Amino acid sequence: xxxxxxxxxxxxxxxxxxxxxxxxxxxxxxxxxxxxxxxxxxxxxxxxxxxxxxxxxxxxxxxxxxxxxxxxxxxxxxxxxxxxxxxxxxxxxxxxxxxxxxxxxxxxxxxxxxxxxxxxxxxxxxxxxxxxxxxxxxxxxxxxxxxxxxxxxxxxxxxxxxxxxxxxxxxxxxxxxxxxxxxxxxxxxxxxxxxxxxxxxxxxxxxxxxxxxxxxxxxxxx
Length: 222
Fold this sequence. Notes:
The chain is mainly beta.
């Protein structure tokens, strides 16, 4: 699946056409701000579940959230405009077992937060362009089952491992189409490759090395 996503992004950057025909088209602007909602596809990894002493079916698998990015386009060489910037993203999911079960497992809340820098290759012009980008940053992955509450009225207390900051590589691409002079529709498809974590429960390993996809869509401002 990851190979198919990368191939699709490369094809998008090669085939994308300018949003409006004009001669000459405007250049890609100096900066752009992205404000997007997102869907994170975490999956239900048995090794990840074991690191929190829960069953894989208790993991939400999917999270919803948002992301904010700022990108500067510093110089152009032939058809490619090079950019630098960064992105902050958050996502949250919750898996609640069916109340019809005789002995239902604990509900689990999963949160992912990441901050990272990015380098980008941009193709197109100021009316609309596609890009490929990648970078490195840090993330926090919190997976909390309800049975770790000290009492029913107390908030969920995190495991020690859920406060761990993990080195994270992100890579992907997307596009922006400016229907108005300063406002565009934009989307972003990104893969997050996360380093393994340390063990936080006796008799259980740490979280495994993981790669998952986040799809974002929203608006861009220039």
